[in-house]
Amino acid sequence: MLIGREQEQQRLLEAFNSNEPQFIAVYGRRRVGKTYLVRETLKNKFVFEHSGLAQSDRSSQFEAWKSALSESGLKNAKIPATWIEAFDMLKMLIKSSRRRRKVIFIDELPWLDTPRSGFIAALEHFWNGWASGRNDIMLVVCGSATSWIINNLINNYGGLHNRVTGKIHLKPFTLHECELYLKGRHIAMRRYSILECYMILGGIPYYWSFLKQGESLSQNIDRMCFNPDGELYNEFHSLYASLFRNPQPYISIVTTLASKRVGLTREQIAKEAAIASNGMLTQVLQDLEYCGFIRKYTQPSMHVNNCIYQLIDPYTIFYFQFIAHNIHHDKNYWSNTLESSTHRAWCGMAFERVCMLHVEQIKAALGIAGVASVAYAWSAPATNDGRRGVQVDIIIDRNDNVINLCECKFSKQEYSLTLEDDMSIANKVERVAQVSAKHKSIHVTLITTFGIANNAYFNSIQRVITAEDLFKP
Questions:
Q1: I need a surface site. Which of 309, 355, 449, 463 has the fewest CB within 10 A?
Q2: pTM for the structure as a whole
């Protein structure tokens, strides 16, 4: 059951039906469904299929390659001594195939590039020296180590420069796609619960696949995340260890960012995570950004080289707020914390992140889908004249001279603005106006689950966006 992914499927099928050589790179974070997409779209069309082995040496990779060649029909396949020899044997297999279109699918390609293996040079030799000259070849490669795919294939400035003919960045599901996924699996869940589930799991199809019929959301989360036998009990460390050969600096950075609602600058990260501000930090931040765990943005008046990095991966945020704190190994920890202050604080931050991941839906609801804009969180410290510091959940800074100052409020019913809310919003509008272009109007926008209650303060809101809007395609 392949939910959504229409554009990605179309791109793969267009490449398959082409009369030219095709080199397609599919990338995206772990568990997002890359392998499933390729297999479901091109099922039964592979001449050769292989997957790299995680954390394995070159000899193990060669043994697995030989096994894949044998399974694909190459007679008398042997264990190659070099990657040049490995690709030569692949050529022999391709030449023996009678298929009109020879589709080669290599999954988890980055794991084949072990230290000093010569893999990149051999891949370059295979493609440039042979495969690119044949109109019947379609090479599809996948990788969860997104930064490796981008740096070594898409942005390669050596022999593979501009050799990739198509790239597919597979992103997590939206709320709309998660709802379709649940319907396809005949799991009944109200949109409020789907939203809360998204705040926990994000849009990762693999995580949603463990939800069971007949269990409440709380029962599902307790079983999946807090039971030692649960499918996601050890997911956090498995996730980062599978993506990065040295996961510790990556974990240190996401740990540092986990409690920072707006985010931190590079120098602040280096200081708080106790990591040297050098090239390694640049690489780690870039890797985390490419994999979708963090995002980078700038605020008005901020120098472009002093960006802010914000943790946006829902599961990672959930891990630090709850799973990491379950020191007594309570199998019902989630259910037992539902009415706690920790849960309420997490709801606010998690809902804000979901809204940030659905900015396109918010813009569509505002009627500005075609208007160029940038979206970012914003904060300012307290002033010397006694005004409190402010923190704005989302600012949508538009090219049509309007700024949407967005307040994100997760609520079980219509949100009722208070006097404190009203004063806080007025302070935020004033502070944003001081740093924004003078000709821009500021529209206060409330993003909440069920809308706004009609009371003495609701007129301070220009537009209201509800969870229903976030579920739009």
A1: 463
A2: 0.92
